[in-house]
Amino acid sequence: MSSERVPVELSKGVNGLERIILRETRGSSAEVYLYGGHVTSWKNEHGEELLFVSSKALFKPPKAIRGGIPICFPQFSNHGPLEPHGFARNKLWSIDTDPPAFPTNSSSKAYIDLILKPSEEDMKIWPHSYEFRLRVALGPGGDLMLTSRIRNTNTDGKPFTFTFAYHTYFSVSDISEVRVEGLETLDYLDNLLNKQRFTEQGDAITFEAEVDKIYLSTPTKIAILDHEKKRTLVLRKDGLPDAVVWNPWDKKAKAMADFGDDEYKHMLCVEAAAIEKPITLKPGEEWRGRQELSAVPSSYCSGQLDPRRVLQGS
């Protein structure tokens, strides 16, 4: 049997749900479930898991999978009349066998194109016709890229409006040893205080209690520095002006049936999003939102972080 890595493999995952495994030649990998169009794993070339999935996550439709990268569409959280975070994350997506031309600067063969279209049942909940195309790709260096393209295919001439997020759960060693760089001095909406607007302090964001904030007009690059793992996770984004930062902390963790009581210590959500200013598409119009995740070794000493090297780099 050949030892050559197969870049794209379709297999059965938890509870028999279909998944796609992407492998890059240097050893990095990713796993995508057709249920939810949901990335559930992203490993570097050393086989280290970079995303968090709860040990109590249910891989049972219609429940969303707790962890990885859920897709929030057409509504983020409770910012609208639909179910929290919309319905894309608990629908069965299809492999897109004939995607339109896709501009790419990567020679990687480790990618998959998925598509979601509304069912008759979906149209009763949200009466709009759309095509949601998602490409998940692994770059040659192990970077994970997600590109969403949402097109209004209404035939009645009506526009539609939506909010969106890649609800990424990152795996961290110890939440108390983590800091987020790139969101200093920005305005944010605090979901724990009725979405009141505040301005972030000038220092890096650290974690000592529950956090649920929507940062507005954010830069295209955000860094998550994990001191204990000596690793920096970098999120680059395009078409997604907002960034959500969330950790449930102990009380909320205990209240969630599909989340371990102490797992809040080992995860952090930093989510590329479009929330404050919803996106409106007329029939025939298309929106694109992209995020790229990379992991770089960091030799920062505690208290001597120089994240500008990461944030201002390429």
Automatic annotation (TrEMBL):
GO cellular component: cytoplasm
Keywords: Isomerase
Annotated InterPro entries: Aldose_1/G6P_1-epimerase, G6P_1-epimerase, Gal_mutarotase_sf_dom, GH-type_carb-bd
Catalytic activity: alpha-D-glucose 6-phosphate = beta-D-glucose 6-phosphate
Enzyme class: isomerase
Enzyme Commission identifier(s): 5.1.3.15
Pfam families: Aldose_epim (PF01263)
SUPFAM superfamilies: Galactose mutarotase-like
A biological process from GO: carbohydrate metabolic process
Family: Belongs to the glucose-6-phosphate 1-epimerase family.
UniProt-listed PANTHER family: APOSPORY-ASSOCIATED PROTEIN C-RELATED (PTHR11122), GLUCOSE-6-PHOSPHATE 1-EPIMERASE (PTHR11122:SF13)
Record's protein name: glucose-6-phosphate 1-epimerase
Native species: Gossypium tomentosum
